[in-house]
């Protein structure tokens, strides 16, 4: 890229209300050392584009068994190992940009993710990395004095799952930070999911995401974590529908040890970003 040019092509995408800005790093060639700052500046609501995360896509070395790879950063500039909805959006955009065929493999920090793009229906299914570190029935004492029972699992990133009979009435702005920063999960912390089993094949999930440090409209790895834990505890069947706080629906299936996540991945717009306007001076 000519860094004297003040504008950069960006792609705004959303998966079930989880929104991301994408940059084709094959053209930009931004070094990783600068990516956290770019994430903070571009993802700022009101002052930047506004997004839950910034994702750089680039071709993979021919020696690797993946079609392309990403560099994923949360809105606060922290690097994330994995993001379910982000991977679905990445898969669709990579296919549109001819970086990969409809069926392909994306390289993430959590490992390779297999994807299948259904372009006519704007649907993408991804096979997430295998769940691990499942720890059920952890009792947590919150600063308010309340004691809750939660379950921990890693579905690419660590997730805490808390079941409630009235998820919408739970104060996620209180529970979320208290659990996310709890000493039990230090130093990395964990994402926090408040889950309600609506019936044997439907879960309602609200997620407080680390890095965003707020409730998001959806979280793919959180949906997978909720489905995995619910199945382990006998609270849901397989497959399961996930209703998100944004009103969208995701599908999670758990054949054997595998986890598949499916839902819409929408390209909202393609735009020219004025780098100076978001505090990123071109060279």
Give me a quick take on this structure.
The protein is of the alpha+beta class. The protein contains five helices and 17 strands.
Radius of gyration: 19 Å
Number of strands: 17
Give, in order, the helices and strands: EEHHEEHEEEEEEHEEEHEEEE
Unreliable spans: none
Query: What is the CA–CA distance across the termini?
Result: 11 Å
> How many domains make up the coordinates?
2
CATH architecture of the largest domain: Roll
Q: Name the average pLDDT.
A: 95
Q: How does the major sheet shape up?
A: 17 strands, mixed
Gross geometry: globular
Alpha-beta content class = alpha+beta
State the fourth-level CATH superfamily of the largest domain.
Answer: Diaminopimelate Epimerase, Chain A, domain 1
Assembly state of the chains shown: single chain
Helix content: 10-25%
CATH topology of the largest domain: Diaminopimelate Epimerase, Chain A, domain 1
Number of helices: 5
């Amino acid at each position: 890229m000519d860094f004297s040019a003040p504008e950069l092509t960006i792609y705004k995408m959303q998966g079930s209300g989880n929104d991301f800005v994408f940059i084709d790093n094959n053209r930009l060639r931004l070094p990783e050392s600068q990516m956290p700052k770019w994430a903070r500046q571009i993802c700022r609501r009101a002052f930047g584009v506004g997004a839950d995360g910034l994702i750089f896509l680039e071709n993979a070395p021919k020696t690797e068994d993946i079609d392309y790879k990403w560099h994923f950063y949360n809105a606060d500039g922290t690097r994330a190992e994995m993001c379910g909805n982000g991977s679905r959006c990445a898969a669709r955009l990579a296919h549109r940009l001819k970086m990969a065929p409809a069926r392909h493999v994306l390289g993430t920090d959590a490992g390779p993710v297999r994807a299948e793009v259904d372009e006519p229906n704007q649907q993408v299914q991804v096979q997430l990395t295998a769940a691990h570190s499942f720890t059920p029935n952890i009792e947590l004492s919150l600063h308010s004095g309340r004691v809750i029972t939660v379950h921990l699992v890693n579905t690419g990133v660590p997730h805490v799952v808390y079941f409630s009979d009235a998820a919408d009435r739970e104060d996620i702005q209180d529970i979320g930070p208290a659990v996310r920063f709890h000493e039990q999960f230090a130093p990395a912390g964990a994402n926090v999911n408040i889950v309600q089993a609506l019936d044997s094949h439907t879960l309602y999930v609200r997620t407080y995401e680390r890095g965003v440090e707020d409730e998001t409209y959806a979280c793919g790895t959180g949906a997978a974590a909720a489905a995995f834990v619910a199945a382990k505890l006998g609270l849901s069947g397989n497959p399961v529908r996930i209703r998100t706080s944004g009103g969208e629906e995701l599908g999670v299936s758990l054949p054997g040890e595998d986890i598949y996540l499916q839902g819409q991945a929408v390209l909202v717009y393609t735009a020219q970003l004025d780098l100076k306007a978001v505090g990123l001076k071109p060279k």
